[in-house]
Write a structure and sequence with these properties.
Blueprint (H helix, E strand, L loop, with lengths): L3 E7 L3 H14 L4 E3 L8 E6 L4 H20 L4 E5 H7 L1 H6 L5 E3 L7 H11 L3 E3 L22 E5 L1 E2 L10 H5 L3 E2 L2 H13 L4 E5 L15 H8 L7 E5 L8 H9 L6 E3 L7 H6 L6 H14 L4 E8 L6 H14 L3 E6 L17 H26 L3 E9 L8 H4 L4 E6 L4 E5 L8 H4 L3 E9 L4 E10 L7 E2 L4
Parallel strand pairs: 1-2, 1-3, 3-4, 4-5, 5-6, 7-10, 10-11, 12-13, 13-14, 17-19
Antiparallel strand pairs: 8-9, 15-16, 15-18, 15-20, 16-17, 18-19
Helix pairs in contact: 12-13
The structure holds S-adenosyl-L-homocysteine, iron/sulfur cluster and FE3-S4 cluster (F3S).
Length: about 475
């Protein structure tokens, strides 16, 4: 079979990254192999996101560029997948003559058939059908990149929560969970391919299995924890309203479960939470945080925030800042509210002006920056066990951390901190052993979003529980 080159450009969340890998997996039997070079590809797939207006604009600007590339290479197949494809469907084909195929979020398993048809007849195809349940559940694992130590495994798709600002239920369809046996099979395959860590994905993993009467998410984690050769488990995202005591207790019970939870709160004000349809109050959220810390006192907690939701007053925004002060997050993502046409809040009154949203975003980020700095500083002198991901990217050559060594590596702690570290000369001989191994790193300093330190023990082949010890500086 003639080998053909496929370029997939992914915008959006981890779910889309997972989907991109599945797309590569289902198209491999047709002779497609991945390429980074867009200009020489036989097919380009733009895997899109529409969570905020900016994400959607990004997709259309890349599609604009592809129109020019296709003039130089008329046999190029241009496809649009993901959430913008689901949202816009046929309109994309009508508006953009250079697009050959639009496929929605449920169409990935129908791709081989569609691509074959386009290859043989050069027809144009739109498939944005949504189904109630996952119709095909054969684990498809696409290729791993060189030295990839961690992989995503989707455990459910869709969302039934209908937060008023959110487009996801409209573009990903109804919540539907995969069978635990299929999930375990996929994790085992990844482990056999050399992966040490998996992140279980869903828009709200806490409600896994409820609808179908499968096992609970805590039970699923317990089963994944027994897989030999797997060292670490992460999951995202948790909805606070469904975070059960049983699930909280898994942090104390499962040795492979990483000591981190991403628990998006969105706002610290009850009135805003109500109008967002989040179905919890500020105090219920704070109780969950206390519950988690009771089980695991040093658990790392991160969150998502939206600033400038319609009608948000200065006082309500202040309540969000107060919540951040009292939780003291290990990190957060904050977004300026953006109207999405299919989301109910687009019709809410009291829209906040862009400059006010910008000001609030900056105030929130400044507050968190100070908290992160203090938390990072408190970690100096501690030793953390990291899973080594490979040589660091993007460090400046005059960086103080790099001065000690020409080789600079990075890894992640159980708490999901990114840690860069220098490797002493006598370790250089072992460098090929480092990626995918565990190592103890003594923290010596902090950047805004990561830490750096010195390798004091390793490489080794074990995560040893949470892998965290404190030793004198
Ligand atoms: N399922 C996850 C998150 C999905 S979207 C959850 O429930 O938390 C990721 C984040 O994008 C959200 O947590 C929210 O903070 C942000 N977001 C979603 N819709 C948005 C909008 N219309 N404007 C700005 N941010 C938005
Ligand atoms: Fe969107 Fe809410 Fe579902 Fe998250 S839980 S995907 S924010 S509707
Ligand atoms: Fe974006 Fe779709 Fe994910 S809208 S955030 S790619 S679910």
């Amino acid at each position: 079979m003639k080998s053909k080159l496929l370029h997939i450009s992914t915008i959006g969340c981890q779910m889309n990254v997972y989907d991109a890998n599945q797309i590569a997996g289902v198209l491999a039997p047709l002779g497609y192999t991945g390429t980074d070079a867009i200009e020489t590809a036989d097919m380009v797939i733009v895997n899109t996101c529409t969570i905020r207006e900016k994400a959607e604009q990004k997709a259309f600007s890349l599609l604009g560029r592809l129109a020019k590339i296709k003039i130089a290479n008329p046999s190029l197949i241009v496809a649009v997948g993901g959430c913008v494809a689901q949202q816009e469907g046929e309109a994309i084909i009508k508006r953009m003559p250079h697009v050959d195929m639009v496929f929605g979020t449920h169409a990935i398993f129908r791709l081989p058939e569609m691509v074959r048809r386009i290859e043989s007849t050069r027809c144009r195809i739109v498939d944005v059908r949504l189904s109630e349940t996952i119709d095909v559940d054969d684990p498809v694992t696409g290729p791993l990149t060189d030295g990839q130590v961690s992989a995503f495994v989707t455990i459910m798709r869709g969302c039934d929560n209908y937060c008023t600002y959110c487009v996801v239920p409209h573009v990903r369809g109804r919540e539907s969970s995969r069978h635990p046996d299929r999930i375990l099979e996929e994790v085992r395959t990844r482990v056999a391919q050399g992966v040490r860590e998996v992140t279980l994905l869903g828009q709200n993993v806490n409600s896994y299995g409820n609808k179908e009467g499968l096992c609970s998410f805590a039970e699923l984690l317990t089963r994944v924890n027994t897989i030999g050769g797997l060292h670490r488990i992460r999951f995202t995202t948790s909805h606070p309203k469904d975070l059960s005591d049983d699930l909280m207790r898994t942090f104390g019970r499962l040795e492979k479960l990483c000591n981190h939870i991403h628990l998006p709160v969105q706002s610290g004000d009850d009135g805003i939470l109500k109008r967002m349809n989040r179905k919890y109050t500020r105090s219920a959220y704070l109780e969950k945080i206390a519950g988690l810390r009771a089980v695991s006192p040093d658990i790392a907690i991160t969150s998502d925030f939206i600033v400038g939701f319609p009608g948000e007053t200065d006082r309500q925004f202040q309540a969000t800042l107060d919540l951040i002060e009292s939780v003291r997050y290990d990190g957060l993502f904050a977004f300026m509210y953006s109207d999405r046409p299919s989301a109910p809040s687009a019709a809410f009154s009291g829209k906040i002006a862009e400059p006010v949203k910008k000001e609030r975003l900056q105030a929130l980020l400044n507050l968190q920056e100070g908290i992160t700095r203090e938390k990072h500083q408190a970690m100096v002198g501690r030793t953390l066990r990291v899973l080594v991901e490979g040589p660091s990217r993007g460090l400046k050559p005059d960086d103080p951390a790099i001065a000690a060594s020409q080789i600079q590596w990075s890894g992640r702690s159980s708490s999901n901190h990114i840690i860069h570290f220098a490797v002493p000369e006598d370790f250089l001989a072992k460098k090929e052993l480092l990626t995918g191994a565990f190592a103890d790193i003594m923290i010596e300093g902090a950047y805004a979003h990561s830490l750096w330190g010195r390798l004091i023990n390793g490489p080794m082949n074990t995560a040893q529980g949470k892998g965290e010890t404190t030793i004198a500086a």
